[in-house]
Request: fold
Amino acid sequence: MRKLLAAVLCLATTAAVSGCGADVESSSRDDRSSAVTVTNCGRKVTYDKVPERVVTNDVGITELMFALGLEDRMAGFAMPDEKGDLSDVPWKDGYDKAKWLSKDPLTKENVLDAKGDFVFAGWNYGFGDDNGFTPDALKKIGIPSYVLTESCRNGRTKTSRGIMSPLDALYTDLTNLGKLFGVEKRAATLIVGFKKQIADVRAQAPAGTDRPKVFLYDSGQDQPFTSGRYAAPEEIINKAGGTNVIHDLDDSWTAVGWESVLDRDPDVIVICNYGDVTAEQKKKFLLSYPPLKNVSAIKHKRVFALDYVDLVESPRNPSAIARLGAYLRRVAESQ
Reply:
């Protein structure tokens, strides 16, 4: 199934992804001196030239560049080892072409050492007030940046993130990057292919009261870290045919109390697979945690794992929707 999905995605993006063996759009604008203005996190940002040495933070952000065929524009990327399974990713060759700068989050030193002229990162995806690595700090040293839309702060609290639905965030970033780098057609082709793939899943998804209730478990034992309505799992779950039980939380990734999980009694728990604690270890904890023993997902051992990169804004989101959709259909049929 995963190989079939990869083939479909490759066909849908033949004009966009060099890894599929097709001719691709040139990755630079004809008039290199012309400025480009896009809306990023609710404000207009103007870039005076096409970046030539982009530095990215984290796997999903990096793969947005790869999916657009922009690895030749990259000075390098920072990310931990958790890339997930690359075997069916059409843009996997980007990892061989772009330099791996660090397994830790980006720093100004990383950017300067790489002679970067542009940074693509996000709040809690590299950017942070606590570490001093911010768009404003980069601006002071003459380096422009772009903030991942999934991570845009919404003003509800000092750290709350998310200003639009997660898939709209993905499409917004592809469109903006396409405009900035002069690969608008490639971006548009990707978006069309992604929307078709998702529509095909939705056409088979359970409806109404048959939709399983789903809780996303990232990590944490005293308090689970999960996804509100503005992180990618919200729409991955929704488009796959489920309902995110933490949908009413106006934030992206955040912690909640176990009481919220017990009260909402999910039919399925989706594990975010990354880090030193494996998906199997997380599953073992959930199945043995006494307060959860009467939760439907635990009683029926309905626990499904997706990789970290599937569950943050990335070009792997549509494939994650397809895989989770197949699982949720089986759950709905068994209820």
